[in-house]
Amino acid sequence: MPRLLFVASEAYPLIKTGGLADVAGSLPEVLRQQGMDVRLLLPAYQHVLETITPPTPVAEFDLAGTRVRIVATRLPGTGLETWLLEHPVFSQRPGNPYHDAHGNPWPDNADRFALLSKVAAAIATGQVPLQWRPDVLHCNDWHTGPAIALTHLQESRPRTVFTVHSLAHMGLFDRPTFERLGLPPHFWQDSSLEFYNQCSFIKGGLVYADYITTVSPTYASEICESPGGMGLEGLLRQRRERLVGILNGIDNGVWNPAADPYLEQGYTAETLSDKTRNKSALQASLGLAPDSDRPLVGLVGRLVEQKGLELILPVLGEILASPVQLVVLGTGERRYEQQLRATAAANPRAMAVVLAYDESLAHRIEAAADIFLMPSLFEPCGLNQLYSLRYGTLPLVREVGGLADTVVDSSPENLASGSATGFVFQRPDAADLLAALRRATALWHDQASWQQVQRVAMSQDFSWQRSAKRYLELYNSPD
């Protein structure tokens, strides 16, 4: 049975700040179910240790003068053995994994995630007292990039795969930090981890991995060119033959409108009329007018520029006059939060804003909304549009990254052929966003056509089972 060590900085439901957690909480378990012997390695954050049953000690050892301990648990709701790396920099610090209560990165993030990478590399190359050693090391994002590079210091190493969930986060640190971390001096060069006189953790994966994956085929192409490559496009073009775009999947058990415990009323593609009960319940709970004559638009996500807030805010008044109702759930930059909250306060029966992370409310919005708004400036994959398709909530997206790969525009041709699943616009322009929304609201008033698109959307297969097959092929492909 092939052995896989899957390393990430977060995994749902133990710890989640973004889409990486959804991937790490789903893909390894599906790979286990498909025949791999998998271990998921995560930092043992204080919050994680407080929420699990007492874990089982696996190993305790010194690594470059640092004493660490690995304990085992099961990822809740799965059969996946999960190893947690215990050390005070993780285990004795409350709050967010990456930043303090003011949103500033923890000053020792380089040390923390270098430690995670060093432990992962040591496990992968048999340098620790364990009876288990992987055939494949799969690392994710900048937090674990150095692990891939460090395996190359050993003669015997596993196959390595590195997944870029977002190239926007590179893990950049200065030269004194690089030297303090005790990384090999030859890593400080342009062909290794050095990037414009900084140490880039993500380059550890991009330079040294046997295979690089991104989370959608279109994003794999976008990062090989400027501006998507963010200065790394030359390196990625050099490695293009080893760069593969594999769409993220979703957990169809967690995101299932027929059996979602958060919903007022479950429904299927055959019982779409039941979906409206979720809309009425959400309107009542958020103080919106109980209006069935206009569509409800949902937006769930980080309130940052990347997610298209600069496209939404200039036309927010026109959006509400479309007429639609709008529900926003998320947190982000204060200026966006303030503008959204002020508009909602002035339009309390048409717009509601909840500045929080709320998994239950996210599910209820997906089920209640008619249209899901996701006009990202860039989007490596995106998961919310996949949830929306599953829930018959038609996504309105910009044609970038994974959004372009997963949503089919409701053009006259696609409506006629029965392939339409949502609404797509191209330019990062507020007027184009508004035009797409007006197309969507016009179609919503033709309920027969709207429900046909809903049924096609709900029939799409974006399960992890499909995506996991692609990863298995990559793990087993010839060198």
pLDDT averaged over residues? 96
Number of strands: 17
What is the CATH class name of the largest domain?
A: Alpha Beta
Total individual domains: 2
β-strand percent reads: 15-25%
CATH homology-level superfamily of the largest domain: Glycogen Phosphorylase B
Low-pLDDT runs: none
Helix content: 25-40%
Throw out a few tags for this protein.
479 residues, alpha/beta, Rossmann fold, 2 domains, 37% helix, globular
How would you sum up this structure in a few lines?
The chain has helices spanning 19-24, 27-33, 46-51, 88-91, 109-124, 145-151, 175-180, 201-208, 217-222, 233-238, 275-286, 309-312, 316-320, 334-346, 359-368, 384-390, 401-406, 412-417, 430-444, 447-458, 464-476, and strands at residues 3-7, 37-43, 56-63, 66-74, 81-86, 136-140, 159-164, 172-173, 199-200, 211-214, 243-245, 296-300, 325-329, 351-354, 371-374, 394-398, 423-425. The chain is of the alpha/beta class.
Task: Explain the overall architecture.
There is one protein chain. The chain is 37% helix and 17% strand. The chain is α/β, with parallel strands linked by helices. The protein has two domains: 3-249 and 464-476, 3-Layer(aba) Sandwich (Rossmann fold), CATH 3.40.50.2000; 272-458, Glycogen Phosphorylase B (Rossmann fold). The strands form three sheets. It has a nine-stranded mixed sheet with strand order 3-4-5-2-1-6-7-10-11, sandwiched between helices. Strands 14-13-12-15-16-17 form a six-stranded parallel sheet, sandwiched between helices. The model has no long low-confidence stretch (mean pLDDT 96).
